[in-house]
Design brief:
By secondary structure, the protein is α+β, with helices and mostly antiparallel strands. 38% of the residues lie in helices and 15% in strands.
Length: 216
């Protein structure tokens, strides 16, 4: 895609995620690696439902601002791009149910997925990264143990992040995570989620290995 097309696609994804109530007001950010040096990223302080293509900022991989007013959380994006060579797009959103689980279960190191076969196949392991102050370099540092293996993760007390080889993969991961978190919440209200047999989990993980690491 040309840079103009990428800008339009980011704006479309912002509006889609806002409609799905996965982005609220100026929360969250989306970026796209144009090449080895230049990255498009959503601006700070702009409601994602009303963002315009020309408002997207341009930064470099070494955090130089070429144009606009980039998100204050750009250091997290830059760390992902440095650690995950295949990363072309990143979506960070403040998912209500996913965040709620990290508040209610601070001892969890990852989201339990052993009851849902489609999640094992489509996403694999979903770690919960330790809390880091928004806007700080620590937000990127806490992700490094999970990169580049994990593409989808919860950021404790803060939100979620998905990186992908294109915008569709990154956006799909964010949608899938909030759906999973909501299903687990509903199961908890009904008495708890019962895991699949271990043999079935192993078979599903084998299928995931065949598919590869993409979020689908």
């Amino acid at each position: 895609m040309s840079e103009t097309q990428v800008r339009e696609a980011i704006v479309a994804l912002c509006r889609h995620l806002h409609t799905r109530q996965l982005l609220a007001a100026a929360d969250g950010n989306i970026s796209y690696r144009l090449n080895d040096k230049r990255i498009l990223i959503t601006p700070k302080g702009v409601n994602k439902a009303h963002i315009r293509p020309e408002e997207l900022a341009v930064i470099t991989l070494d955090n130089q601002i070429e144009h606009g007013e980039p998100s204050s959380e750009r250091l997290m994006h830059l760390e992902v791009y440095r650690r995950a060579p295949l990363a072309r797009a990143i979506v960070h959103a403040h998912l209500p149910t996913a965040i709620a689980w990290s508040l209610a279960r601070p001892h969890w190191s990852e989201l339990p997925i052993d009851a849902l076969p489609e999640v094992i196949i489509a996403a694999g392991r979903i770690p919960i990264a330790p809390y880091a102050r928004p806007g700080s370099q620590a937000m990127g540092d806490v992700l490094t143990p999970f990169l580049p293996e994990c593409r989808l993760m919860i950021l404790a007390r803060h939100g979620a992040l998905c990186w992908g080889e294109d915008l569709a993969e990154a956006g799909n991961g964010i949608e899938r995570l909030e759906q999973l978190a909501t299903i687990l919440k509903q199961a908890e209200l009904l008495g708890g989620a019962h895991p699949l047999p271990e043999s079935e989990i192993l078979a599903l993980k084998a299928l995931r290995t065949q598919i590869g690491n993409r979020i689908i």
